[in-house]
Amino acid sequence: MLELMFFMSTGEIRFYRSDGSQLVQFTYQIDPVFVQKDWYKKTMYASSDTIYNYIADPLKVTENHVAVDPHILATPVIADLNNDDRIEELIIPVSYFFDDEDYRSPEKLKHLQNMTEPTLSYLVAGVTVLNLTNMQVIFKVCLELSELSSEFPAFLLFSPTVIDLDSNGGELEIIIGSSTGNLHILTHSGQLRAGFPKSLHSLQGQVSVADLNNDGKLEIITMDTSDNVSCLDHNGNLQWEQELSGVGAGSRIIDINHDGTLDVVVATSDGKVFALSGKDGSHLPNWPLNIGSKIVSNILITKIGSSDNQADMVFAANDGNLYIVSSDRTCQVHIPIEETSLVEVLSHDLVKQSPGLELLVSTRDGTLICLGVGRELSQDYQIPEAAERFHQQNSCPAVTKTYNDFSFSIHKPFVYIMASTRHQGEVTGSSFWFNFEIVQKPRENSKMTVNYMIKIYYGKNLLFKSHYTEVGQYSVKIPTWPQPGQGHMTIQLTNQHGQVFQDSFALRFNEMILQDLQWLLLAPFVAMVTILLVNHGFPAKDLLPMTFPEKAK
Fold first, then answer.
1. Mean pLDDT, residues 304-323 taken together
2. Residue 193 has what DSSP assignment?
């Protein structure tokens, strides 16, 4: 069964079961980093090349070092970083600094007041990778050191992007941008990738990665606080740059004009939605769209209706409205929710009796709003498989559908668990048939090559793995989990870039047969007691021999 993972701003990680009980034994606290007290007297800023001149190994700490507190200010990522088929690496962006909020108690406040150095002089950006199987640190890297009061402090405020930049089917790289404007890329073992970091303006939003021009190589899309959108190739070379009129919370990738090339969509703080050509960054015709009110979150791109080929862009603005705009701008509606939102809108088939996807909006005042597009049907309504497949393909139940899927395109790959497997409920025996479909629509005038790795997991346990070179429906026989139980079955499709596309459902293994076996074990005892009662009736005294302690003495 899946657990819930919570990240405290103080660097603590907590795990909870689905019933809300805490798994105390797995609670983890990130260690502080030890910085020289007077580092800021020697330099104004330390990059990844010089930072370890001022940061000490925990085993070599002296009285000349300060223990700086860890903070998690962005959502970590779980991935199979080293490509060993175990999804167990947790990539955590950590910002180390002293926060007054952490020192409310008199004891901690006294510790802070006893420091002879100014607390605003310490800010470290780093990445910690934790093995979730044994709760051991795989590696810990410090990337930058600055003063907290600096004009461009070294915060890590957005989730890392994890992907195979070399597109060779190997280990994954970690891409993360800092508030200083540096774009860092780490290998799966924590080494800085050659040619990085790249110095840009103060980076804003998670870094998006996709093959924009369909050349088989990945491009990196960044957004900064100077209103620039930059596109770099996988080696960090600038491909194009475009200046917008406001700051965005990141970007989304979609082929808006259906020309076979992916485009970049950005919503900005001045209330505009920009669409830029993935080829050269130029503004697409009829864009930007001007809402006239600040947009602080990224855009959800989904497909609410199924009547045409246009996608829908969904976002909340600071005027208290939720906007839904078709990608060709022919349809535009706004729904008054009378509240603002700081985060992305999500979409999923939350109400099975209601046709279509539901939108989930989280507002600034702590309200969750679920919006549906169809009327609710009877409880015995059975959703057609075509509709179920459509929902799975177009839903977005998280900020990104997987940790490195930033695009919405009918041409990208998709894997779907067929209804014959999805609705089994329970399987018995030592193996069962798993039916799935690999879907990808080829682009016009292009020869599509398919080379996908399919993995099927029970929880995080790998049950099946194989390469596929053709789209279509498949049926494979996989082993059931040895112990009776229930959990999540997940099928994962990975392409040559390490991009992950997946589908999942809940399944029970041999639970009903376990109950039957328990009754079978009880049956002989019940039968024996029944026969004794029939033959002898209820005896006046005990049938079994008894020992009385007094008489035994």
1. 85
2. P
